[in-house]
DNA sequence: TGACTCATGTCAACATTCTGACATAGGTTA
DNA sequence: TAACCTATGTCAGAATGTTGACATGAGTCA
């Protein structure tokens, strides 16, 4: 250790703090998902699929913030393990609507509970008003950052 | 597109929103750093080093939320390009204190300005009170999530 | 109809990061 | 002193993710 315990003026950057919080959340999620034999990427995909059945590969990629190529290899694995199913042929266009299987749903259930517990721990003693404020602030970040994107 | 425009109850998860904001920030940073021939990882390392000269490889890894093996390959590249320097032998223990070179400092200057502009755009119309509130909330997230870590 | 644009799925090559492992330096404690 | 324990740097292998590229299906518009 070549430095004093903790940050000085680096902690004044909200961007750094945002990254720090996001990393801490991901680490905590990985910690509770590992005993269940699941990764954060797997969970994110299944959770998204549970809330919005029939999403395509590209939809899922956007929703989990990865490239559609990465999502494709993930879906192949999930398909091989029997967690999701995709039709052989696209009903319309090229998009293949993905569906959770019963096995996928049951595996997701325990993982979802674990993740929800982590999120609740993250929110800690934040009252409802503060949670609303947090949502307002974070939503503002996203819209401000993505406003210029065509 | 196999779904309606935007989220429904998925947007109620502060964890998802946190990840979304962090991803948007990283994408915006990549966009402004690419013209400068720099990646987010490079910038993070240099910025950390500018604010805390003499950090070791492991220190930098912790500060940028990557493994020390990854940081090592990054430092080798930065060293090769003449942005940082490390002594051949450790002055104490095994930790090698890293220093920015003049070239590294000058390259960092423009990148730092660009990133600061992105952060300011993210904060948008947030007044000082809201920024304080944001810092309070995000700091709370980090401490709540990492409280159980020995 | 035909040309154009856009989104999608998929292939290949590359880059990045991580995990596992090992030896070493320093501190702690019996 | 000697036996731990922790932290560090580094090597090797594997997993994961990305970019670039291509063909296909659907909609748009002259």
TrEMBL record, chains A, B:
GO terms for molecular function: DNA-binding transcription factor activity. InterPro entries: HTH_MarR-typ, MarR/SlyA-like, WH-like_DNA-bd_sf, WH_DNA-bd_sf. PROSITE patterns: HTH_MARR_2. Gene3D superfamilies: Winged helix-like DNA-binding domain superfamily/Winged helix DNA-binding domain. GO terms for biological process: response to stress. Residues 11-143 form the HTH marR-type domain. It comes from the Bacteria. This is MarR family transcriptional regulator. It comes from Subtercola lobariae.
